Amino acid sequence: MQRVVRTLLSVALVVGATAARSNANLPHTNTAGAVFVMTNASDRNEVISFRRAADGPLEQDDRFATGGRGTGGVTDPLEAQGSVTLSQDHSLLFAVNGASGEVSVFLVRGSHLTLVDKVLSGGAEPNAGVVSDGGV
Predict the structure, then answer these.
(1) How many domains does the chain have?
(2) pTM exceeding the 0.85 threshold for the entire prediction
(3) Which of 14, 98, 107, 136 could form a disulfide with 71 if both were Cys (CB 3.0 to 4.6 A apart)?
């Protein structure tokens, strides 16, 4: 599990860099944003949040169930970049549940997520999402 989390962290740093800007208006002290990674677990997919301190270190904050199932990949747990995507304004996070063919939508508040919707992807085993003006 530690190896999976490390792999997910390396891929998620891009997501974390954009999330840091969305946290600028939040009343957190000594924090510089958040990083979000996904477990892609086949039995219970989750998003793991990490708080980023102002001087850079990450600290695991919480786990949030997506309500769906991941594909359970071991060699490449994400199986695609973009399986966790922030909206352009950084207020929403989209997590792809490949095995259940759904996309979970979370409201983002710092490193805390609230599941607000789960929709069918319209495809078989989706592994990435792209955010556009029309949605995911």
Answers:
(1) 1
(2) no
(3) 98
107 DSSP assignment = E
What distance in Å separates the CA atoms of residue 39 and residue 30, rounded to the nearest whole number? 27
Task: List the helix and strand counts (H, then E) for the chain.
Answer: 1, 7
The yes-or-no verdict on residue 38 having pLDDT over 60 is: yes
Kind plus residue range of the DSSP H or E element containing 22: helix 2-22
End-to-end Cα spacing for the chain: 29
77/29 Cα distance (integer angstroms):
33
> Is 127 within the bounds of a domain?
no
pLDDT tens digits, one per residue of 48-94: 999 988 888 999 999 999 999 988 876 555 556 778 999 989 999 99
Task: Please give the distance of CA 13 from its chain centroid, rounded to a whole number.
Answer: 11
14: three-class secondary structure by DSSP: helix
> Could you tell me if residue 36 is inside a domain?
yes
Tell whether 82 is covered by a domain: yes
Left (φ > 0), alpha (ψ -120 to 50) or beta: where does 101 sit?
A: left
Question: Can you give the residue range of the structural domain that contains 83?
Answer: 2-120
Burial (CB < 10 A; 0-12, 13-18, 19+), residue 1, is exposed
